[in-house]
Design goal:
The chain contains 11 helices and 10 strands. The chain is α+β, with helices and mostly antiparallel strands. The longest helix has 26 residues. About 8% of the residues have low confidence.
Length: 314
């Protein structure tokens, strides 16, 4: 008989253990465990009485109990170390960190990106990079490792399985191979992650920004140093997205100061000058049209007259 086997035994109607083979033999000799008591070890499909187990040989010199009243009642199924011994609430109380880990990782990495960049548009760009994806994956792996540590301490753990490298398979084993709970938790994790990602995308696109709150007063290099001042890029974007090209003709861009741009249209320029429009850029990388009938008025303008936009290319 292997000395490494670990036994569980019944004592006064409660599950006790685990103890080694040597220790349980000593308990039999001391009369702590006697005929009629139930025992279990890994590999057995169910609890059995002591006399039905391989430990029966050690009962030869041990007298039976005085009466049937000394024998504890059979253990309830909930006490047996089977894969379904824990309720759903007990299992979920352990695994919820792993279920919500992708959502938590998305939110944490976006908040970090926002603290680094200082505005929603650039924060979303940083959040979308592979570097932040690696950090998110690390957070998820930490949550998985912590949950696996808890799983190993439970009676349900039967050893490592390589299929656990796939999250759905791990969740299925973790929930006692009950498909309804497995599918439910996978859907819960996906829905929470999709909601978080959608909220992050909307915030990064300026959906929650106040469109008329841009202030263009700062004019120093230190204050505007982070802005995109590429005239060629702005000119290319305006011509690419111009839906009235036949009427306006080619669009040209000239910079008046660090944040003000004069927009001219080839078809709208004649002997009396051009019909100009004016754009301003904000420190978060956005642009918007402002009112002005001269360069001076455009430079002095501080409020948008249109919905702000950002340069995007297909």
């Amino acid at each position: 008989m292997s000395e490494q086997a670990m036994w569980f035994y019944e004592s006064k109607g409660k599950r006790e253990g685990s103890v080694s083979t040597t220790e349980i033999i000593e308990l039999i000799n001391q009369g702590v465990i006697h005929q009629g008591a139930q025992v279990w070890k890994k590999g057995m499909t169910e609890w059995v009485t002591l006399e039905e187990s391989e430990l029966a040989q050690y009962l030869e010199d041990v007298p039976p109990p005085l009466s049937n009243n000394d024998v504890p009642p059979p253990l309830q199924t909930v006490l047996t170390p089977k894969s379904n011994e824990e309720s759903f609430s007990t299992k979920f109380a352990s695994i919820w960190r792993f279920i919500y880990a992708p959502t938590f990782a998305a939110i944490v990495t976006y908040l970090a990106s926002y603290l680094i960049k200082g505005n929603s548009w650039q924060a979303f760009g940083l959040w979308s990079t592979s570097g932040m994806a690696v950090i998110s994956l690390f957070i998820i792996l930490v949550a998985w490792a912590e949950d696996l540590w808890r799983f190993k301490k439970s009676a349900n753990y039967t050893g490592w399985s390589w299929w656990w490298l796939f999250a759905p398979c791990y969740i299925h084993d973790r929930m006692g191979k009950q498909w309804k709970w497995t599918i439910g938790l996978i859907i819960l994790s996906l829905v929470c992650n999709l909601i978080a990602s959608a909220a992050i995308a909307l915030h990064g696109d300026g959906f929650f920004d106040e469109n008329d709150s841009y202030n263009y007063q700062p004019q120093s290099n230190a204050q505007v140093g982070g802005m995109d001042l590429n005239i060629i890029e702005l000119e290319t974007y305006l011509n690419t997205t111009n839906t009235d090209a036949a009427m306006t003709g080619h669009i040209s861009v000239a910079m008046l100061d660090y944040v003000t741009y004069r927009i001219s249209y080839s078809n709208l320029c004649g002997s009396h000058g051009c019909d100009y429009s004016y754009l301003k850029s904000a420190q978060d990388g956005g642009y918007c049209y402002v009112l002005g009938s001269s360069d001076e008025q455009a430079i002095a303008a501080t409020q948008c007259s249109s919905t702000p936009f950002r340069l995007t290319y297909n």
